[in-house]
Design brief:
13% strand, ProC C-terminal domain-like fold, Rossmann fold, single chain, elongated, eight-stranded mixed sheet, 2 domains
């Protein structure tokens, strides 16, 4: 068994005959599932090449039954048996996860890809010394393959490590590379942004109801308007101000609505939301 005796001792029976693990994932929650399901669907990895560690028995059973993934409750096993380790847990449990990793898993030379908000490359490097480490920030639209992730590579990352990480996140949307000093800002904008937009959409729906629309119709109108506007901006490369100008006729309805938004501080509220999220991201990493 050589150096893999821990693997064979603790590995679940379903894994023992399939030891060519390429991707180990610690955390099988919403974002972890979004990534793994798309990776399997696009055949970037086969289910036999993925090992997921999660403390919940029910979650492990679901991931195994739904996607055919190999599962375990042993974080060290997921870390030691794979070429890439994806840390898909909440930042608040990072220290506990690191403590729980076996020395075998921590010493292996596999690349570490972390999606924990606020956890810095230096903190990750302390836990995984001299390892190629990539800090990533995806967002929840990844669950419908419409996300965007920013990636910040550490000093030991080679081009092939970065390419592998990009492929993982491109399976659920787009991936861009940024310097780490921008990651808290990325978290505040695209990481938290779906929450801000959800609040805005909810308000649009309530506004529609307030002026007489049935809620179901108001919901459909608001959602498609958001989707269509984003697509229009993306495909035409228009500046948002240009699009705004195109739909604001003199003395018309849109300029009346925009004037009301300005009176209520709509733009300032969004800017302050990003600022607040940025500060919180920095606090999580301190």
């Amino acid at each position: 068994m050589n150096g893999n005796w821990l693997f064979w001792l603790f590995c679940p029976r379903r894994v023992r005959n399939r030891v060519s693990i390429k991707l180990g994932t610690i955390g099988g929650g919403v974002m972890g599932e979004a990534l793994l399901s798309r990776l399997v669907a696009q055949r970037l990895y086969s289910p036999d090449e993925i090992l997921v560690s999660d403390p919940s028995v029910q979650r492990r059973e679901w991931l195994s039954q739904q996607y055919g993934l190999q599962v375990t409750d042993n974080n060290g096993l997921a870390a030691s048996a794979s070429d890439i380790v994806l840390l898909a847990v909440k930042p608040q449990v990072f220290a506990a996860v690191v403590r729980g990793l076996s020395e075998q898993g921590r010493e292996k030379s596999s690349a570490i890809v972390s999606i924990m908000a606020g956890v810095t490359l230096s903190q990750l490097a302390e836990a995984f010394p001299q390892r190629p480490i990539i800090r990533a920030m995806p967002n929840t639209p990844a669950t419908v393959a419409a996300g965007i992730a920013a990636l910040a590579p550490g000093p030991y990352v080679q081009p092939h490590h970065l390419e592998q990480a990009k492929k993982i996140f491109q399976a659920v949307g787009e991936a861009i590379e940024v310097p780490e000093n921008l990651m808290d800002a990325v978290t505040a904008l695209s990481g938290s942004g779906p929450g801000y937009l959800a609040v805005a959409v909810e308000a649009l729906i309530d506004g529609g109801v307030a002026v007489g629309l049935p809620r179901a119709i108001a919901t459909k109108l608001a959602l498609q308007t958001l989707h269509g506007t984003a697509q229009l901006l993306q495909e035409t490369d228009l500046h948002p101000a240009q699009l705004k100008d195109r739909v604001t006729s003199p003395g018309g309805t849109t300029i009346a609505g925009i004037a009301a938004l300005e009176r209520c501080g709509f733009r300032s509220a969004l800017i302050e939301a990003v600022r607040a999220a940025y500060q919180r991201s920095r606090e999580l990493g301190s």
